[in-house]
């Protein structure tokens, strides 16, 4: 049973991926049954058998043609057909997936379960029920006799928003990453997924397009190739490197260090520049991997300490690639939470950060020694813990005075506080060293894609300007010779473009008859004798309909023979 909740639309994609996966592995065949196919048990069996056998249509056609000579032909809802398929494909299970189980007739569903259960010794069956409400409610609708025949397990499908967050976080924090999305592009993609409902597949397509834009539009992307060396550098590529912002900053840094000879070699020697560029690309990629490894460690600390406002995965990544994470409130809250952790939580933190924080191993050994010698039950707390705060009331000059203080620490708690302080200091240093500003790295343009312009125009298109330009200047878009040019208000223009230009010259309300007469005068010429008026009228109405479809005009409520103007060019 797959509990869908509000993600009922995601069941189709899930079943499709499941079907492709199990069929590729050769472990099962999946038949998807919809409520429209469940009018009766016979209809369900027909759909089930047809779906299973259709994936092996060539094989089944040969078998059916041979069986016509060997014995009687089976009916399309006879489970012997399915039994024969299982015998020919040993080891495969038959998965029956009910998309929206609540929409099925429960009498038909109960009879189907009973019938298929009687074949379980010959046909290995697995049911998948998509449940939009709750498992208890779904189970209550079935007879107990049918429920007793099933062995059930419940799976919760991940929310699409969580899936998108996880995809984005895992992609950016991949340990072997070579290319990352910058602050502006990441922010645009995440905002687009939040403002408009996006499935994980749609979000993945957006990410693929973004990577494609980098490799197709950025000549520095060639530096990410594994086999490239300094001999492959063309003079044009070297010139492009000398014009990027990070090169200018790198040269200025060298000049500040009085390394003028190095700067001169970078400007004059292409081979030296190529070697420096390749080395800095590798160094930059290693730095980015360390930064995102640090982001992953911070996320685990936030999860273990359970801070009040845990940021989203995308928020952590966007702040990190923007260089804003190190000075954010997220770090302050995480470090503050570390000071107040109890001994059992600190053990989990040290185990979690054992591979990333060098100090974690030694602190873990010291903590285990302290816990093994601890007297009495309970966990150890630091002096920063809120439970240590005490309140005292004293009478001063016949007035009550409330004072705050802290309870006295035992020797074990004092030692535990010193361990926590060392962990706090080590983790803070680890964050400062690794949470850098990515755009400060030399050659970051090669491995950090942050050009918002082309991505924004694609994912957030603004078609109105393009439509208005096309209607105003159709020669810019239509495939004519370079010498072809449409005169203003000429019959050679497309009818919709001509009517649009007349529309621009009109007021807020235009008489449709006047518009028609002006249109007909232009397309028929001065005499109008050689042009069919009925043909012109049909072209006119089609052009008016297209303007209505584009939301530029509508019929006026005040005057039935007038059109109301809905938009003005440029506004």
Automatic annotation (TrEMBL):
<dbReference type="Pfam" id="PF18137">
    <property type="entry name" value="WHD_ORC"/>
</dbReference>
<feature type="domain" description="Origin recognition complex subunit 3 winged helix C-terminal">
    <location>
        <begin position="464"/>
        <end position="568"/>
    </location>
</feature>
<keyword id="KW-0235">DNA replication</keyword>
<dbReference type="InterPro" id="IPR040855">
    <property type="entry name" value="ORC_WH_C"/>
</dbReference>
<dbReference type="GO" id="GO:0003688">
    <property type="term" value="F:DNA replication origin binding"/>
</dbReference>
<dbReference type="GO" id="GO:0031261">
    <property type="term" value="C:DNA replication preinitiation complex"/>
</dbReference>
<dbReference type="GO" id="GO:0006270">
    <property type="term" value="P:DNA replication initiation"/>
</dbReference>
<dbReference type="Pfam" id="PF07034">
    <property type="entry name" value="ORC3_N"/>
</dbReference>
<keyword id="KW-0539">Nucleus</keyword>
<feature type="domain" description="Origin recognition complex subunit 3 N-terminal">
    <location>
        <begin position="4"/>
        <end position="223"/>
    </location>
</feature>
<dbReference type="GO" id="GO:0005656">
    <property type="term" value="C:nuclear pre-replicative complex"/>
</dbReference>
<protein>
    <submittedName>
        <fullName>Uncharacterized protein</fullName>
    </submittedName>
</protein>
<dbReference type="GO" id="GO:0005664">
    <property type="term" value="C:nuclear origin of replication recognition complex"/>
</dbReference>
<dbReference type="InterPro" id="IPR020795">
    <property type="entry name" value="ORC3"/>
</dbReference>
<comment type="similarity">
    <text>Belongs to the ORC3 family.</text>
</comment>
<keyword id="KW-0238">DNA-binding</keyword>
<dbReference type="InterPro" id="IPR045667">
    <property type="entry name" value="ORC3_N"/>
</dbReference>
